Amino acid sequence: MTDYDDLFAETAPDESVFADKQALDPLQPPETIRGRDEHQRQLASMLNGVTEGYLPPTVTIHGPPGTGKTVTTRRVCQEFVARHDSVAVEYVNLKECRSIFSAAREIHLELTGETVGAYEGVDGAFTGIWEALAEYPEWTVLILDEIDQIKEDANYDPSDFLYRLLRGEGKLKRDIQLSAWLISNELVEVDLRLDSRVESAMSDEAVFFGPYGASELDAIVGPQLEMAFRAGALPADAREYGLQEAAWRWGDARKTLRLFRRAGETATDRGLETISTDRVRESLTGTERESTIAKLQSIPLRHLAVLAASVGQRTDAGEISQPVRTSDIYERLNHPSTADRFQLGQRTVRQLVDDLATMGLVDTWTESHGRDGRGKYVATTFDPAWVREAQAAVAADLAGDAVE
Ligand SMILES: Nc1ncnc2c1ncn2[C@@H]1O[C@H](COP(=O)(O)OP(=O)(O)OP(=O)(O)O)[C@@H](O)[C@H]1O
């Protein structure tokens, strides 16, 4: 039988380098938005359009992960509506929405507090959305975070969804003043392949959040590092090294916080009083691995299948052999044991490989083989073994869903 007193005593950190580990939690809203003055100014001047009777129908906000798109946009909007009764702001994260209906349902839920039944469909959700907005203040800013998710719906064109949002009959009839602020990693018009009808209904307002440099990361996470660690636990050289590497590799504030948290945990596990540059170096690999696997778990299954096929078989020595040709990927996916499951033609495989390259997950290049023509080669931009780990995690999730 377990002696819990012993168990907890043994696992309690006695010499922790942390003073307040929670300070490194990226989910805690920051007290102050730092290093984004110009962006805040741009967003504020768009909001100030209401004083002249105009809000742009859309504002696109894009840039790589962890660059402050969400926190900055939400904060500026919240502060503005707190000072202007004629404006309301609503925020909806579409992260979990893999269909247009679920996106419309999520917006409806945020505006009304009520769920739309599946039988009411997208039409029902939009009717409810317009009825709700008719009761709102004169202007509404609707922030749709991770808008790129709506492209996952194979049965519905993202253009139709956005067109309804911008030019829907129910909206025009009620003269609703809605400004849709669309947040995503890629430029939304390109990523969602929006048609010209939607593009002309959108406005040109776009705000780009670039990756942070080392000094910006210092300004953003610096105060959190001060709070998180005991005095002297994070020496200046290790701190500097971590910030430089984080800026060079990612420019992502969230990953930077994770990097220092992991480094601190390793130091504490090993009973060390300080976090050396070596601990930070180890943490860099761990952070890279963790975030890549998390990203792989979130991509569509077809893309993951193509990645798995590009990773291929281990050699006799247990190594994964890369690069592979796109034709090999196609053949592996069309092996009799899996062909029925995937049903991916050559063109689709090529398209999926291009998507993976755009996501930064693979590198591709073409080589000439003399008389045999040319071949396109594919290799992952990260340790290919991580694909197997992501596959195992996805399979476990799917099995869990099936049980529920
Ligand atoms: N300028 C900033 N000032 C203070 N904290 C910031 C800033 N930028 C980012 N952060 C921190 O990083 C976290 C991630 O930021 P945020 O969610 O805004 O990034 P994002 O660009 O929307 O990322 P994603 O594309 O992954 O959704 C925030 O919760 C906050 O802790």
And the CATH topology of the largest domain? Rossmann fold
Low-pLDDT windows of residues? none
Terminal Cα span = 31 Å
Strand element count: 8
- Under CATH at level 1, the class of the largest domain stands as Alpha Beta
**Computed structural class:** alpha/beta
What Rg is obtained from the alpha carbons, in whole angstroms? Answer: 24 Å
Strand content: 5-15%
Give every kind of bound small molecule, once each: adenosine-5'-triphosphate
Strand order of the largest sheet: 2-3-4-1-5
- Into which percent range does the helicity of residues fall? 40-55%
Average pLDDT, all residues = 89
User: How many alpha or pi helices?
Assistant: 18
Q: Let me know the largest β-sheet.
A: 5 strands, parallel
Q: Which series of helices and strands comes N to C? A: HHEHEHHEHHEHHEHHHHHEHHHEEH
Number of domains: 3
Say which CATH homologous superfamily of the largest domain is assigned: P-loop containing nucleotide triphosphate hydrolases
Apparent shape: globular
Compile the SSE list and pairings.
Layout: H1 4-11, H2 37-47, E1 58-62, H3 69-81, E2 87-93, H4 100-112, H5 121-134, E3 139-145, H6 158-167, H7 169-174, E4 177-184, H8 188-191, H9 196-201, E5 206-208, H10 214-228, H11 236-249, H12 253-269, H13 277-298, H14 301-311, E6 324-325, H15 326-333, H16 339-342, H17 346-358, E7 362-368, E8 374-380, H18 385-403
Parallel strand pairs: 1-4, 1-5, 2-3, 3-4
Antiparallel strand pairs: 6-8, 7-8
Helix pairs in contact: 2-3, 4-5, 10-11, 10-12, 11-12, 11-13, 12-13, 13-18, 14-15, 14-17, 14-18, 15-17
Bound molecules: adenosine-5'-triphosphate.
